[in-house]
Amino acid sequence: MPPVGELIWFAAALAGAGVVAGVLAGLFGIGGGAILVPVFYQVFGLLEVDDAVRMHLSVGTSLAIIVPTSLRSFLAHKKRGAVDMALLKSWILPVPLGVMAASLIAASVSSSALRAIFALIAILVGLRMLFNKAHWRLGTDLPANPVRAGVGAVIGLLSALMGIGGGVLNNTFMTLYGRPVHQAVATSAGVGVLISIPGLFGYLWAGWGEPGLPPFSTGYVNWVAVALIIPITLLVAPLGVRLAHALDKRQLEIGFGLFMLFVAARFFYSLS
């Protein structure tokens, strides 16, 4: 058992991460995974977690936190009738299959490779947010299978490699095919459920028995972080929401895009 002082410092650092993630998640109106992973990576570094497992632990812990938040959000949106249930039903197999593939990749790649993957996807997301145009369209309705199934699998794969709930990727997909942004956001909550639950078990399996993990970790999931972050993010997110209402939508898109590019640059710098 680690010294009590070390455990207190560990918990305090993670609580601070929860405050930062909660405010930023509220500000940018996303589930928080894209915020949590880079924040976790920095905090776990300050706590001297082995670099070989630090990125994996950040991604797995983020997915564990997304499970209850995505479930709560999905049920609330479903009650309002805002979710595209037909799309979700068509993705019940493709999205988890993509997540399972991501778990296999995570079990075999290095921390550097996982950081590079996160950074590359973050650049694409950041550029999309910076140069997004409301009139961009690829079609008037969502494509049928097998294209739809393939998109679901890719969203599951990329999201599980990044430790996110798939909101940014699914919002992009649905709005490019003419769906209202509110329906896209609501449906993304359900996509988060399809990603986070198999992702949690996948990262538990991928990191099982790995050396160098911090106290109270099972596989690539740290339960201290999970227990601390969920209530803290829910508590402080309204602060970010208040900031968001002081800015217009385009300013938020630019802010989030710049944040993702900054995170990507930080991860690429760590590879040098």
From TrEMBL:
GO CC term (a single one): plasma membrane
Alphabetical keyword list: Cell membrane, Membrane, Transmembrane, Transmembrane helix
Pfam families named among the record's database cross-references: TauE
Membrane topology: Multi-pass membrane protein
Transmembrane segments: 7-37, 57-75, 87-107, 113-131, 151-169, 189-208, 220-240, 252-269
Keyword Membrane included in the entry's annotation: yes
Subcellular localization(s) per the UniProt record: Cell membrane; Membrane
Main location: membrane
Alphabetized InterPro entries for the sequence: TM_pro_TauE-like
Family label: Belongs to the 4-toluene sulfonate uptake permease (TSUP) (TC 2.A.102) family.
Protein name listed in UniProt: Probable membrane transporter protein
Organism: Hoeflea olei
Taxonomic placement: Bacteria, Pseudomonadati, Pseudomonadota, Alphaproteobacteria, Hyphomicrobiales
